[in-house]
């Protein structure tokens, strides 16, 4: 299964050098163990632009779509057999980047015959 | 075979085999929804067929086979209606068995799935009672004073999350086992406590259905994990508490405190079994967890034929041990109550002062203080504490007891 591991943060500071180093080690491990799909850190919420083209006339607005105290600072997309495996990895990811993370499965029927039930 | 015997056979099969049937189907089909529905249908079929055909020699096997057929029927029906996805899943189903943790039993996997920490606590309780206990949604809803539709939604939401988020149907690895077992025990203890000190104005003060179900499920886990000290401890704690059930509420529906209980009406069989478990844990010479210490406290109480024979120094020593394992202020409060018997109410009252910040909204805190103040002859303060306790108490028998004690103050 694929999981989105979102990094949740409530301050605007970027990762420190130590945190970056720990994230690199964690990312290498994800790759070696076959869990890596993709990952990235995001620039602050003030750099966001919202675009709404539902009406066919694209409306561009500055800023994040919703003002919250906590925001998405980065994410991993991982491959894991089941939630227990994903939660273990996420716990190590949270430790590495020194921030809270949220684990969420991607929707859809997974026809990959993973051993999870 | 007469109707009563058949009805009893179905009831017995329900009690003894439900969890096994659901668990086997959950593993075979990888879907709790299908497992639950097919098991329910199999029991409904038994109610219809057994009076006509007779009770099968092996009811468990009959129910599993029947439920299995019902599940396949349902999947075929859905395949015709939907697409080929389900069929694809079924084709994959004979994949080699997954790597197992420490113990292999379908029911054990089911318990760990239902009590997974990624589910909300109330969902874990509801799922455990439904999937393992075999209680109907209506029964669970009644037990927790929730509308049946709301309880149905709670269970459905949990099942959807299990499936969508990939919560595994597996016994955790040996490394994770202790933490996950303690999560399971927390769910069972919660069910037991809700039965033992039922809340809600219209509730019976003691709900034997819930305490009995909690004990039954804990016995099951004990059979599956016989080496686990905390499982044995929780079972002993429940047995030693349940043993006092009949003495705990008076004929007029009032709570009877431990000191005032008729010890002759305690259930000696349950006490003997509880004591045996406590002795077994002592002999194991492994540092006990909190359930084992609580069980040991229960064992000291139930060893005293008269309240005056209670070994309070041992009880305080056990509480001293417990506060190191469990920093909850409620444990500290219970310790203070025991200290009152050893060092007097004045010392105990001083200890309760320190808990005021954290326990001001808890009825038992005010009830304990009311009693200590009463013993110190401080009637006005005692009355105020009783008032506060009565206002906060949720259990009808407790309210009746506290009201009488307050009204007896001079």
Radius of gyration of chain A: 16 Å
Mean pLDDT of chain B: 89
Cα-atom Rg of chain B, whole angstroms?
24 Å
The SSE string of chain B, one letter per element, is HHHHHHHHHHHHHHHHHHHHH
Average residue pLDDT of chain A: 89
Task: Report the structural category of chain A.
Answer: alpha+beta
Broad shape of chain B? elongated
Q: Order of strands in the sheet with the most strands of chain A?
A: 2-5-1-6
What oligomeric state best describes the polypeptide chains here? heterodimer
Overall 3D form of chain A: globular
Q: Please tally the helical runs of chain B, counting DSSP H or I stretches of 4 or more residues.
A: 21
> What is the percent of helical residues of chain B?
over 70%
Strand content of chain B: under 5%
Helix content of chain A: 25-40%
CATH class of the domain at 3-91 in chain B: Mainly Alpha
Uncertain stretches of chain A: 111-117
Pair with the most extensive interface?
A-B, 21 and 23 residues
Number of strands of chain B: 0
Q: Strand-residue fraction of chain A?
A: 25-35%
Explain how this protein is built.
The complex is a heterodimer of chains A (117) and B (410). Chain A is an alpha+beta fold and 117 residues long. In chain A, helix 1 packs antiparallel against helix 2. Chain A is globular. The termini of chain A are close together. Among the domains of chain B are: 89 residues, Rna Polymerase Sigma Factor, Chain: A; 74 residues, Serine Threonine Protein Phosphatase 5, Tetratricopeptide repeat (Alpha Horseshoe), CATH 1.25.40. About 3% of the residues of chain B have low confidence. Classes of the chains: A alpha+beta (117), B mainly alpha (410). Chains A and B meet through helix 2 and strand 6 of A and helix 4 of B.
Itemize the secondary structure elements and their pairings.
The complex is a heterodimer of chains A (117) and B (410).
Chain A: E1 2-9, H1 17-32, E2 36-41, E3 49-52, E4 59-62, E5 71-79, H2 83-97, E6 100-105
Antiparallel strand pairs in A: 1-5, 1-6, 2-5, 3-4
Chain B: H1 3-29, H2 32-53, H3 59-81, H4 85-91, H5 106-114, H6 121-132, H7 137-143, H8 148-164, H9 177-196, H10 208-224, H11 229-242, H12 245-248, H13 268-284, H14 290-303, H15 312-325, H16 329-343, H17 345-353, H18 356-359, H19 363-375, H20 379-392, H21 396-407
């Amino acid at each position: 299964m694929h999981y989105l591991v979102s990094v949740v943060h409530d301050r605007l500071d970027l990762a420190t050098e130590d945190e970056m180093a720990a994230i690199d080690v964690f990312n290498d491990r994800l790759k070696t163990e076959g869990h890596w799909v993709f990952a990235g850190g995001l620039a602050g919420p003030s750099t966001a632009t919202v675009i709404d083209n539902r009406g066919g006339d694209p409306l561009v607005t500055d800023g994040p779509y919703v003002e919250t105290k906590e925001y998405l600072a980065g994410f991993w997309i991982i491959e894991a057999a089941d939630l227990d495996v994903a939660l273990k990895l996420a716990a190590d990811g949270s430790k590495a980047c020194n921030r809270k993370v949220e684990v969420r499965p991607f929707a859809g029927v997974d026809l990959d015959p993973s051993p999870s039930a | 075979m007469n109707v009563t015997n058949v009805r009893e056979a179905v009831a017995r099969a329900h009690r003894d085999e439900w969890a096994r049937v659901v668990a086997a189907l959950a593993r075979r089909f990888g879907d709790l929804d299908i497992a639950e529905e097919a098991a329910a249908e199999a029991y409904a079929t038994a109610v219809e067929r057994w009076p006509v055909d007779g009770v099968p020699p092996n009811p468990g096997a009959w129910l599993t086979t029947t439920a299995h057929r019902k599940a396949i029927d349902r999947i075929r029906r859905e395949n015709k209606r939907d697409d080929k996805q389900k069929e694809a899943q079924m084709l994959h189903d004979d994949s080699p068995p997954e790597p197992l943790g420490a113990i292999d039993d379908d029911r054990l996997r089911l318990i760990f799935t239902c009590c997974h920490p990624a589910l909300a606590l109330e969902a874990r309780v509801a799922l455990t009672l439904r999937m393992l206990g075999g209680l109907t949604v209506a029964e669970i809803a009644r037990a927790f004073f929730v509308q049946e539709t709301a309880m149905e939604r709670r269970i459905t939401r949990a099942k959807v999350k299990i499936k969508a988020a990939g919560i595994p149907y597996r016994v955790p690895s040996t490394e994770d086992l202790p933490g996950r077992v303690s999560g399971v025990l927390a769910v069972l203890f919660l069910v037991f406590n809700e039965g033992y000190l039922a809340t809600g104005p219209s509730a019976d003060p003691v709900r034997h259905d819930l305490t009995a179900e909690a004990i039954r499920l804990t016995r099951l886990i004990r059979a599956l994990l016989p080496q686990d000290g905390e499982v044995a401890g929780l079972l002993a704690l429940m047995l030693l508490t349940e043993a006092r059930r009949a003495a705990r509420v008076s004929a007029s529906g009032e709570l009877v405190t431990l000191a005032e209980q008729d010890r002759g009406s305690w259930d000696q069989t349950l006490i003997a079994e509880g004591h045996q478990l406590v002795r077994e844990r002592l002999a194991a010479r492994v540092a006990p967890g909190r359930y084992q210490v609580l069980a040991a406290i229960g064992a000291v109480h139930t060893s005293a034929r008269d309240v005056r024979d209670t070994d309070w120094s041992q009880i305080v020593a056990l509480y001293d041990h417990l506060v190191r394992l469990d920093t909850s202020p409620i444990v500290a409060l219970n310790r203070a109550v025991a200290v009152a018997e050893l060092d007097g109410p004045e010392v105990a009252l001083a200890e309760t002062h320190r808990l005021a910040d954290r326990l001001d909204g808890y009825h038992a805190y005010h009830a304990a203080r009311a009693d200590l103040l009463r013993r110190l002859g401080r009637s006005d303060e005692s009355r105020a504490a009783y008032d506060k306790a009565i206002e906060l108490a949720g259990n009808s028998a407790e309210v009746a007891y506290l009201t009488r004690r307050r009204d007896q103050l001079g």
